[in-house]
Design a protein that fits this description.
743 residues; Rossmann fold; 5 domains; 8-stranded mixed sheet; binds adenosine-5'-triphosphate
Length: 743
């Protein structure tokens, strides 16, 4: 049967009329259905057939770009068209749509950015927020904005939320008591097998063993293994290779091992979705980017060690921690759901039933409650809706501390004025899909005419791995004395090249620049990378990102950059060598302009050395003591052996100790210009004169309701200090809803 014939047999199809009727009769609908029942691929097609796309596009959001791409491909196949015709996609750096397009799969971040130019989303008649359970930061922000838009927009607009696993009562109550449709049934069964022991520290080895065991003893079908990150995946692939080498010759010749993670060039990701050679079994080793939405045609076995790498941000200190933690039960269900999509499947959980039931949390903590709110707040401020971010209608609030921290940082980056209004610079930054510090650095670099170098640094920072085998430049250089040669010592010549680059003594950003420039001079030779101990894939990824960033700046045009920088961005984006003009401007003697641009962008991440000491103290609200990370590229000390007084850092991380990660030294006289801005920031004024807590308290007193209820009812953007009308409006809305409920 073809994809076109198959899709109408999915469990969701018998419910087509109910879905259409509910969506027709309501502004907002929640749809819950088993994994693989057809939510992602079918609902948009049903709505299309029912005529919902005649007045505008049907947009379906995904938390990840790989999902948007592959699902669009599948739906195009089912609708018998090319991607970019009736069905298209839009993700950061890439778009395939045309005037014929009626259904668009796009990432939640892309939709959010589209709202900056078109806050009414006038091109759309329906938005489906898929995988709502994942609670990605962008999806959570969209919840609040779209909930308001549904009421405010004159042109009809429907909002649909879909998931396999969702707290339906909570969602329905937040979305004005909208109906919840439960779609029972799944197409294929997945047998769950729990292990007898929990694998705390040896889960990579256990996953490798299980995968090989499946290959040797189970009937045909591809295998999908979940691990937590690139380094772990590389390790598992290596271990698989070693284990296979010990097996009788030929026993695994038909096994094709494929890694899959986000920081991997797109064409390599695509290999996973291409049909394997005849008679081959695929073994895909992936991060949780493979957890939701995507179907790898052929996967029958899933190996789930139950771990995920989770980033947590503490607003009080600006500290980030990246830890491997147990997944939630919702995630375990999603992972198992990757098997059993094209036939019955089997999921091997490398943890006990007891662990699943008693130790794992029910749902994942929403990203909005554990992340830096900087980017989200910049978008909210960038929308022409006068949103008061502190009183915004969040499903789960990030908390006033996180929001106030974001306001403070955005003020330091010149994105907000003293009253918390977005500045012109802020608008330029919001137009770039980058974290605000990088966006600010690029804008400053364009003004300083050192854009090509700033693009290189931004791209290199975005690659997960630059050096191979978990080594930094310092370890690589030390390797010369590694008698065992276990880590693959560098050749004399390579070491000399690296030592020469490090001799500049300007830390990580500048070393990254030099490495990229050296690679460029070698004609982007993979051998050059390998010789220097660099990760070829990581470097290619950085090169790709650099090109895409340039492309993006070229498209953003004079709205964001001066004319000459737009021209320079175009040249880089076109893939030809940098123009002579750009080369001429590229400082060969020093990199001061670039460092100054970085200082402007990372003024929110400055640290000052302690007197007569090589420890640093961060210059944010709660000064935190930290040390330079041992893997930091060489920074030249002064004659007294002291490090530079000021550095900027990319992240403040807590492992065994607190470290400044990826550091660039700054000249004291440059920093003197920035310091006054960091002192005495008036957060109360930045937040419009009132904090969430105060606003909620006031509304609660006025409306005689609880503070939580009042906070939920505070309309976006209004509870200003001297605005009793707004507080009254909150009260009225609450009372109206209450009496509605009683009826
Ligand atoms: N690329 C593909 N190749 C083969 N079959 C596919 C593909 N994409 C989807 N399918 C089929 O369509 C079914 C429905 O997929 P869909 O993604 O719409 O389900 P879903 O309900 O959204 O699942 P989830 O909750 O896991 O995202 C799959 O179970 C599979 O049988």
């Amino acid at each position: 049967m073809t994809a076109r014939e198959l899709h109408k047999q999915l469990p969701i199809w018998p419910y087509k009329q109910r879905i259409i009727d509910t969506v027709t009769g309501n502004r907002i609908t929640v749809i819950i259905g088993e994994t693989g029942s057809g939510k992602t691929t079918q609902i948009a097609q049903m709505l299309y057939e029912a005529g919902f796309a005649s007045e505008g596009l049907i947009g379906v959001t995904q938390p990840r770009r790989v999902a948007a791409l592959t699902v669009a491909r599948r739906v195009a196949e089912e609708m018998n068209c090319e991607v970019g015709q009736e069905v298209g996609y839009r993700v950061r750096f890439e778009e395939r749509t045309s005037r014929r397009t009626r259904i668009v799969y796009l990432t939640d971040g892309t939709l959010l950015r589209e709202m900056l130019d078109d806050p009414e989303l006038s091109a759309y008649s329906v938005i489906v927020l898929d995988e709502a359970h994942e609670r990605s930061l962008n999806t959570d922000v969209l919840f609040g904005i779209l909930k308001n838009l549904v009421k405010a927009r004159k042109k009809p607009f429907k909002l649909i939320l879909t998931s396999a696993t969702l707290d339906s009562a909570k969602f329905s109550s937040y979305f004005d008591d909208c109906p919840v449709l439960n779609i029972p049934g799944r197409q294929y069964n997945v047998q769950i097998v729990h292990s007898e022991d929990n694998h705390e520290n040896d889960y990579v080895a256990a996953a490798v063993d299980t995968a090989l065991d499946i290959h040797l003893h189970q009937p045909p079908g591809d295998i999908l293994v979940f691990l937590t990150g690139q380094a772990e995946i590389d390790k598992a692939v290596k271990q698989l290779g070693e284990a296979i080498a010990e097996l009788p010759e030929g026993s695994c010749s038909d096994l094709l091992i494929l890694p899959l993670y986000a920081a991997m060039p797109l064409e390599l990701q695509a290999r996973v979705f291409a049909p394997p050679p005849e008679g081959c079994r695929r073994l895909i080793v992936a991060t949780n980017i493979a957890e939701t939405s995507i179907t790898v045609d052929g996967v029958v076995y899933v190996v789930d060690p139950g771990k995920v790498k989770q980033k947590t941000y503490t607003p009080a200190t600006g500290m980030e921690s990246l830890q491997v933690v147990p997944i939630s039960r919702v995630q375990a269900t999603q992972r198992a759901g990757r098997a059993g999509r094209v036939c019955d499947g089997k999921c091997y959980r490398l943890y006990t039933t007891g662990f699943f039931e008693n130790e794992m949390s029910e749902a994942t903590v929403p990203e909005i409650q554990r992340t830096n709110m900087l980017t989200a707040v910049l978008y909210l401020k960038g929308l022409p809706l006068d949103i008061d971010v502190l009183a915004f209608d969040y499903l789960d609030s990030p908390g006033s501390e996180a929001l106030e921290d974001a306001l403070r940082q955005l003020f330091i980056l010149d994105a907000l004025d003293r009253d918390g209004h977005i500045s012109d610079l802020g608008k330029r930054m919001a137009a770039l899909p980058l974290e605000p510090s990088l966006a600010r650095s690029l804008v400053a670099a364009a003004d300083h005419v050192c854009l090509p170098d700033a693009l290189t640094v931004a791209a290199m920072l975005s690659a997960e791995t630059i050096f191979s085998g978990n080594r930094g430049p310092v370890q690589l250089l030390r390797n010369e004395t590694d008698a065992r040669g276990k880590m693959g010592a560098l050749s004399e010549q390579a070491r000399a090249t690296l030592a020469e680059m490090m001799a500049e003594g300007l830390g990580d950003h500048i070393l990254m620049l030099r490495l990229f420039q050296g690679w460029e001079r070698s004609g982007f030779s993979p051998k050059w990378c390998k010789d220097l101990g660099l990760d070829v894939r990581g470097m290619h990824f950085a090169r790709e990102v650099r090109k895409q960033l340039a492309d993006l700046l070229a498209h953003a045009g004079p709205k964001v950059l001066p004319e000459e920088s737009v021209a320079c961005a175009k040249t880089i984006a076109s893939g030809t060598k940098d123009s002579r003009e750009a080369k001429r401007k590229r400082p060969s003697a020093g990199v001061d302009d670039l460092r100054r641009a970085l200082l402007v962008g990372f003024a929110n991440r400055l640290a000052r050395r302690m007197p007569r000491h090589n420890g640093y103290k961060t210059l944010n609200e709660r000064a935190t003591l930290a040390q330079l990370h041992p893997a930091t590229a060489r920074i030249a000390a002064d004659e007294d052996g002291l490090m530079p007084e000021f550095v900027i850092y990319y992240a403040l991380v807590a492992t065994a100790k607190v470290f400044l990660n990826k550091v660039c030294p700054m000249e004291s006289e440059w920093v003197e210009d920035v310091l006054p801005k960091l002192r005495n920031i008036d957060v109360e004024r930045l937040s419009g004169g009132v904090t969430t807590r105060k606003a909620a308290k006031r509304a609660a007193i006025a409306g005689q309701v609880t503070e939580t209820a009042a906070a939920r009812d505070l309309p976006a953007g209004v509870p200003r200090k001297n605005d009793p009308a707004a507080v009254d409006a909150a009260r009225q809305r609450y009372l109206a809803r209450k009496s509605e409920k009683k009826k």
